[in-house]
Structures are given as structure tokens and as C-alpha cells.
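fwd from M.: "can u put these together and see what the complex looks like"

so here's what she sent:
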Amino acid sequence: MVEDMVPASRFPADLTATTGQRTAAGRVLSVLDVFDEDHLELTLSEIGRRAGLTLSTTHRLVGELHGWGALERLPDGRYTVGLRVLELGTLEPQMLQLRDVAPAYLADLQSAVDANVHLSVRDGHDVVYLESLQRRSGAPVLSRLGGRWPLHATATGMVLLAFAPPGVVDEVLASPLQRFTERTVTDPLVLRRLLAEVRRTGMSELHEAITLGAFAVGVPVRGPLDRPMAALSLTLKQGGPVTAHHVLPALHATARALSRAVGSPSEPGPPAASGSHRPRLA
Amino acid sequence: MVEDMVPASRFPADLTATTGQRTAAGRVLSVLDVFDEDHLELTLSEIGRRAGLTLSTTHRLVGELHGWGALERLPDGRYTVGLRVLELGTLEPQMLQLRDVAPAYLADLQSAVDANVHLSVRDGHDVVYLESLQRRSGAPVLSRLGGRWPLHATATGMVLLAFAPPGVVDEVLASPLQRFTERTVTDPLVLRRLLAEVRRTGMSELHEAITLGAFAVGVPVRGPLDRPMAALSLTLKQGGPVTAHHVLPALHATARALSRAVGSPSEPGPPAASGSHRPRLA
DNA sequence: TCTCGGCCTTCCATGAGGTGGAACTCCGCC
DNA sequence: GGCGGAGTTCCACCTCATGGAAGGCCGAGA
């Protein structure tokens, strides 16, 4: 299916050398780079080919990565990403701050409005899902925890872009903007207008930008500095009985609850102990 | 607080050289190793000191890792783990298979019995949480997504150990077994008896093994080969009105539902399309 | 204002150690 | 039995990672 939608590299193409080839560290990273959604399990030779390394080098690097726990070895000898990477990834600070408090709120939201729920942050020119809840009934939406999507094509992305530093907006709008459906907005001028609209209304609304038959509504989640640090969105069936107006109150309420839990000053009174940002112990 | 409970290295101490020192790849990994729950944000110099590298080497390696996205740079110049690592970690196959289907079931379970819910898999001699839901009211329990704990001290760990290859059991019982409370069982002979009990009854029950005032009940989640691939547990207040007997039916039901969703043969009829193991698109 | 210390960055000569070709084994398949 | 592909080990060459040194920056303290 859609192959190239996940950007291969988050940096200008000609800088690929930075990570790809020359250096030893680059070679290590290129081994890790080899794994993606469509290549979850690879043989040693496949890793070597995809990473552009000789077999003996691959053998040694993969051995070290396996020893460390970055790669797992399956019974059939193939390699996959190891749990050690997942473990390390959960140390990502935004993850830590939101992940412990978010699930309960998101579950509430989902049970209130039967829709897909996404919690995302911005990473460079992409949006990354911290949490995504699929609705149990009805049509699922294309997404995945940790999944990476262009900012301009997602409701959360547009919210995060609207409140991002101006430099980021310029960079994103100057770069080639991927089109997913005929309704994906890729015109920089139109996007600028939409972003201003998002800033004015405090919400974003995208129709069939990635998936035909679905539309999404997004709102910001504000952090301790009152700056939008994440975004929350609902994805609903296009043309169905439920419109943005129906879900906006619940969406806003959940976003505010999350903001409060994370310690946003504009949402009065953090609920629990304020010192540590992760709940501990009994 | 408890510092050394997360094992520094998952491999014999004298093999630290494998990852720690000599090789270039080892140096890269040692930089990543520097981050843990108590060291989420570090300066370049701190990274260098903790990794045992000179500043110039650290500078170059951190620069490459940052360029790749493995490390993030905060406004104040310090470094943290980057979202790219989280993204990569979610490719871990067990993660992928369970994470998309699990949340809904776990949320149901949690709303049925107001307790902490954990979904874990075994990684070497440890248990790693794939998913953990904190109960909203009442005493939380010490845990974290991606958190790593000894097998013998957790309910899910005991289930996973009980159904692990005999070699693993021998290794674990031969290694030093960490004690968290006076009720943590660390006697290999007693543990062997308990493991047999777990195999016989299909459930584990641990009382105050890590946290005083809490007990946990665990059951296996079976995968496509009908082999336990994960474990599900509930953590409850010790001495409270709710005992293991009260929650076992719900716990078993959820575990079976998960097994079915993942395609266990003993649970009839997978619910959806069986080909791909991750739900896609609308 | 000047000094000191800590942190970050850049540069470069040296030699440690990463690299990749070759040789070998172990499959499964024709 | 022969063949092709995958994985593993070994080793001589020479790349390229290393770490010392030097310089810039900032904040604290005198």
C-alpha cells in the first residue's frame, strides 16, 4: 500500500551522508534505519544489503547491537527491533510527561464519542503519535503509536504547526508537501491561511486529508509554559451524523484536563503532587 | 528512591566490554546507555563522564546521534532521548501485535475492576511492560511503560517464567535474585515450587513482592503458536475487600480475548482479517 | 572589571581498530 | 551430487575514530 508516506530521512536529502555512510556511528545507525513498518524482520544479509554494508561488517555490527538489546533474534535467525529500544524510547520526556496521565482521559473521551483518538507531538517537520486509540466499532483510521506523518496532512499536525516557531512554518511550507488524496491541501498560501484560522479558533479541522471518508478535529494541549506541547484529535466518519460541532466540547474538555494534569498555568490547580512529573509508587 | 532496581546491564558483568568500551559501536551504545529514569536530561559533559568517553569523542557521537534523531536537544542545550527512538521501538514485533488491539480490552478490564492493569512480555531475564494502565482512584503502583523488572518479583514475570524454556528458568534461578520487600521470594527452591503451581493453575499470585500493601494476579496471553507470548496482570490493594477470586474471571476473560485477537488457535475464530497483524486504513 | 572555572566547539597528527575480501561451513533445492 | 545463498571466522591493510590542545563563551565571585 502507501509506501513512501513515512519520510525516509527527516533531514535534507544531501545530508544523508551525515548518518548514512562514512562514519562508524553512521553505520550503526544505518543498521537501525533498515527496519520500518514494511521491514519488521530481516535476515543478516538483507540488513547488510539495505544498509549498504558488506556482510562481515553487518555481521559484526548486528552482533553488537544484538548483544546490547537493540536487536532481537528470532528463532528462525532473523532479526527484529529489540525491546531495549522501546524501553529507551519511553524515556523521551514528552512521552513520559503525557503517557502516564493520558490513557485514562483518552479512554474517557473515546467512550464519550465513538471515534479514533490521537495524541501527538511535533518532531521536526513531522507529527509523531504518542498515543492512539482505535474505535472498536466502525472504520479504523490509518495510524500507529510512534507513527510519523507530515504536519500539513493531520489535524494534530496543523495545530502543532500553527503554534510552532515561525521558522518552522517557513521551512515546512517551503519543502515539498506530500499529497495523499485529492483533498490534501498542499498550497502554501492556503495552508498559511488555514494556520491563521487555527490560531484564531484554537482548533483545526481537516477533511479527507489522508483518508477518504474520514475527517479529523484537533485542539492543542498546553504544557507548563502554557505553550502548546501536544495536540489531541478525533477522527470521524466523513458525512456521518456526527460533525465537528458535536465533538468539540468533549475534545476541548479532555485537552484542558490533560493540560491541567501536565501543569499548564492557565488551567487552575494541578490535580496531584506537582514535584515529579511521573506518578510513582504506592 | 530505589536506584538499582533496573539492572544496569542485562548481561554478565564481565561482558560489559562487549558494549561498554573497545569498539566504536559500543561507544555509540554507551552514549545511549547513559539515559535512564533518573537521568532524563544531560549535558554533553555529563554524557561523556557517564559514558566514560572523552569530551571530543562524546561531542562527535552525540552530534551524529542528534542528527539522526536518537537524541533531542533542549532549548537549554541539554540532551534527551529523541522521538526517533520511540518510533523505532514501536516496531518491536510483540509490541506491534499487541499494542493496537490491547488498549481497548485493557480499558474495559480496568473499568470492570478498578485496579492497575499491566501487559508484559519477557525480555531475557526481565519483564518489560508493553502497556500499563493506572487506576484513576486509589493507590498507584510502581511501574512504567517500557519499564524493566525482574521476572521473579512480578505477577506477569512469574507467569512468563513459568512457561519459559527450562534453560531460562535455570539461568534466572541461578542468578542473584533481587529482594524488594521482606515478602519478595528469592529462594530458588520456593520459586520452583511456585512456578510449578503457576503452570498447574494457569495463574500467578504475588503478595507485596515489590510494594508493600499491594498484591498482583497474573495470567498468560497466548499467541498464534498457542505458546504464552505475554502476560496480563491486575494489581490490587493488599487486605482490601477485593481478592484474587473476585477478579480472576474478568482477568481470564480479557486474556482470552487478547489471545483470540492475536490469533491463538485454542481461542476459536480470529475476529478480523487474519493476514496482516496490524489494523490498517479506512 | 578582571579572573577563574565549567562547558562547548573545532582542529589535527597519530595509531588503534574497523573494514572487507577470502575461505569455510551449513543448509535447502534443483 | 552440485549449486546458490546465508552465516561465520580470520586477517592484513589503511581508513578514520580518537583525544589532546587551544580557543570561545558564559556566569560567579572578588
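replying to her w this: Chain A touches chain B through 74 residues (CB under 8 Å).
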